[in-house]
Amino acid sequence: MIKILFYFFALILIFAATRVVTVRNPVHAALFLILAFFSSAAVWLLLHAEFLAIALILVYVGAVMVLFLFVIMMLDVNLVRLREGFTRYLPVGILVSALILLQMVLVLRYWNTTEVIATTMVEIPNTTLLGMALYTTYLYPFEIAAAILLVAMIAAITLTMRARRSNKYQKPEQQVNVRRADRVRLVKMLPESRD
Fold first, then answer.
1. How many Å apart are CA 132 and CA 138, to the nearest integer?
2. pTM here?
3. Is residue 96 exposed (0-12), middle (13-18) or buried (19+ Cβ within 10 Å)?
4. Hey, where are the domains in the chain?
5. Burial degree of 17 (CB within 10 A; 0-12, 13-18, 19+)
6. What are phi and psi of 165, to 5 degrees?
7. Average pLDDT over the chain, rounded to whole?
8. Between the N and C ends of the chain, which has fewer C-beta atoms within 10 Å?
């Protein structure tokens, strides 16, 4: 049964990854990308890599929405028009949700009954093994990847920062240096006479 589940999740993963690349609608592409992440997380759960599966769902599925919003900000997509066509995305959303629910039910049903191949996996949790491998053997690649991601994040923030001409800002340094003679002018006027 485990092999059947593995091939089932792998087929869904290949289908979802293909649809991410081939679909024209960015909303559909994001939904299929979420399905691909859930499918690979299900495969990792079958392999008893719980930490990687949870990290994939928490980090990447959460980051997909941020990435999607980032793309909308960059392209200046009309949000009103997207809200009007909400029902167009409903069938794809229901299909993706149903597949994700089916995957979760199948994995949780057969996850506890599977046997672990290596005996060391039973004695040491996989999170501990992953941490030991990540911070000993692969320390330098991990740090290089972190630096590259930091540079990419700074570049993304720099690209999206635009100075808007409609916004008016106060400049406190100019307000502090203002003298009374610059703002107030005393005018001497003759008193008005009633004739």
1. 9
2. 0.51
3. buried
4. 1-115, 118-161
5. middle
6. -75, -25
7. 77
8. C
